[in-house]
Design a protein that fits this description.
Elements lengths: L10 H16 L7 H7 L6 E6 L3 E8 L2 E8 L4 E3 L9 E8 L5 E8 L2 E8 L4 E5 L6 E7 L5 E8 L2 E8 L3
Antiparallel strand pairs: 1-2, 2-3, 3-4, 5-6, 6-7, 7-8, 9-10, 10-11
């Protein structure tokens, strides 16, 4: 016959132990990684839309009143150059990075249009994706492999999600 641990403990004490265990599970304290955050987040005081790859952080950063996409290599703790991705005539809205940091998907507003783009770092190329049926994209998320993209799209006043398989 198996006897439970709590059956050997008086009822009042077992209740207190259960409450302590539940409280310990529910009171997780979140703390920034200060040595990492202090080094990385020094180019601006405003960052938003963070997205983590395995060893990469893509974020939107505000500099001199203008937002731009920034990619940070967490191993070297340096900002990585993204030639051709940030243009002065566009406003980034959302960004996502693949696990290996080779692909970035992002949404930007440019010339009154909101568009979804894929940036391939090794090639330095931008590929614009057409949203069909038409809609206004708001958020993007790449899967770890960089082969599947989820896009939040507004159509006719409703939010929808399009899942798109990307070519390699």
């Amino acid at each position: 016959m198996k006897i439970s641990f709590f059956r050997k403990i008086p009822i009042g004490l077992s209740s207190v132990l259960c409450l302590l265990l539940l409280n310990a599970c529910g009171s997780l304290v979140m703390r920034p990684i200060y040595n990492l955050n202090g080094i990385i987040f020094k180019s601006s005081t405003s960052y938003r839309e963070p997205n983590l790859g395995t060893e990469w952080l893509a974020t939107l950063v505000s500099k001199n009143g203008k937002e731009k996409i920034e990619l940070i290599d967490l191993r070297s703790r340096r900002v990585v150059s993204l030639p051709g991705i940030n243009s002065s005539d566009s406003q980034p809205i959302s960004v996502s990075v693949s696990a290996n940091g080779e692909k970035l998907a992002f949404i930007r507003q440019r010339a009154g249009q909101t568009e979804v783009l894929i940036y391939r770092r090794k090639l330095g190329t931008l590929q614009r994706l057409e949203i069909t049926p038409k809609g206004v994209p708001r958020r993007v998320t790449l899967d770890a492999s960089g082969r599947v993209l989820a896009v939040q799209v507004s159509r006719g006043g409703n939010w929808q999600v399009d899942v798109i398989r990307l070519s390699s």
